[in-house]
Amino acid sequence: MPIADNALNEASRYFAIVGGAIGAALALLYCGLQFLFPDSMAIIIVLASGLILTGAFHEDGFADVWDGFGGGWSVSQKLTIMKDSRLGTYGATSLVLLLLAKYELLMLLADHWLWVSAALICAHTLSRAMATSIIGRLAYVQEDAQSKVKPVAKALSRQSLKVLYYSAGSLLLLMWLTQLFSFIECLLLVCVLWLTRFLCITWFKSQLRGYTGDCLGAAQQIAELVIYGFCVQVWL
């Protein structure tokens, strides 16, 4: 059943909150698994559970973007490849490297259960806030507008932006109050995510002259990885 654009536009304001709930669920799972398995196995199960919980929705977009951008020459060719349900060499390779990078970064934090838990919550929340904020900053690619497989919001109201940014800001405030991040580190993380957002927008614009739902999924995955890396640099 097709989802109305206005419903997607209204729902998009809550994507960061949904990400926080997913991150919290994975953090709780990790804490429980620590009593049963070594850190390495606990992190593998957490990553696998995240894929199951979200249906690998964002990872699918990440792989499609690499397949399309790597295998297509024209915008039309790239979009055709991105819509193809088959996984190509670029997509498969990118997914393997993505999951390996997530595993390695979380393993570096595994000496302290709180670090892994906080990183999971922070990454899943803020990465979705960053990716969602791209909506409306670029033109939605018209050739992809007929696709009903992966509907995506095409605009963000001022109220939606407020809810989105308040959600992200509340988490950063919590990280500061619990002394996991200093005030300067919170500001630095915002700058790092803003730079990541700028680079993603520039990349999508150069490749498609706009964005699609797959692009938002790729941006979320890139931002999640950046946040894990930031946590490693701050806490180690």
UniProtKB/TrEMBL annotation:
Its EC number is 2.7.8.26. InterPro entries: CobS. Pathway: Cofactor biosynthesis; adenosylcobalamin biosynthesis; adenosylcobalamin from cob(II)yrinate a,c-diamide: step 7/7. Its cofactor is Mg(2+). Pfam families: CobS (PF02654). It is found in: Cell membrane. The keyword Magnesium applies. It comes from the Bacteria. Keywords: Cell membrane, Cobalamin biosynthesis, Magnesium, Membrane, Transferase, Transmembrane, Transmembrane helix. HAMAP family: CobS. Joins adenosylcobinamide-GDP and alpha-ribazole to generate adenosylcobalamin (Ado-cobalamin). Also synthesizes adenosylcobalamin 5'-phosphate from adenosylcobinamide-GDP and alpha-ribazole 5'-phosphate. This is Adenosylcobinamide-GDP ribazoletransferase. It comes from Pseudoalteromonas aurantia 208.
